[in-house]
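Supplementary notes for students who missed Thursday's class. We covered one full example, reproduced here. Read the sequence, then the structure, then the short commentary at the end.
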Amino acid sequence: MDKKCILLVGLPRSGQHAVLNWICDQFEQNIYPIKMRGIFQKNVVRNFGRIDREIEEASQICVLHLEGQSLRSTANCIKWCDEVFKNTTTVLLLRDPYNWLASLVKYKRVRQKNYNIKDYILRWKKYADEYLGTTNYLGDKILINYNTWFFDIEERKLISSKIDGEFSDKSMDTFANVIQAFDGKYRPASKLKVFDRWKYLRDRTGDCFALNNIDASGYCKLIFGETEGYKHFKGLK
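Structure (token representation):
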């Protein structure tokens, strides 16, 4: 297939939808992201009827997103993309552990969804190891530090060039329900207090004990620097 593929890989509540919309805006064609979740579970490729139709209808650039899958399953997805598309660019997105966990916990609790916090945290650690190059399931990839991407226009310009896009920031001030999910209020994306989410955990230290069990403070400082969440929780035992 003579089409280019951009595959965005990230965990739930990592800012994936904001980054997806922004990636689509880097191209002149009308691009709509195609959700791949559930397709590559248990290392089995299946249910491609819907995906094939959406890809066939897409423009010359397909933006696919895979959310919360294991890295092994994601590697299978990349292999499939390499077989289907002319070329594939993999993008790995990571958000700092404290704002990410706060957003995840509130999202799950507000919607009364069952979840195992330890499983999510262990998966965050595996994504962080992949980000740092300790593992390399995904092969060549573009790294997006969500914290830097959100604040730094020069970083966004650099990423846009890496995916061969024409830089645009128009989506940074668009309104989207999914982006406002933390507090249920409508605000431009650039006005959201996405780096104050960690405060939701101040009275929920039990959730943070699990973070410290994977040395989240060490990962956070190495990748994101000394964030406010890091400063608050780093000594928690």
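Commentary. The beta strands are 4-10, 34-35, 61-67, 87-94, 142-145. The two ends are 53 Å apart (CA to CA). If anything here is unclear, bring it to office hours.
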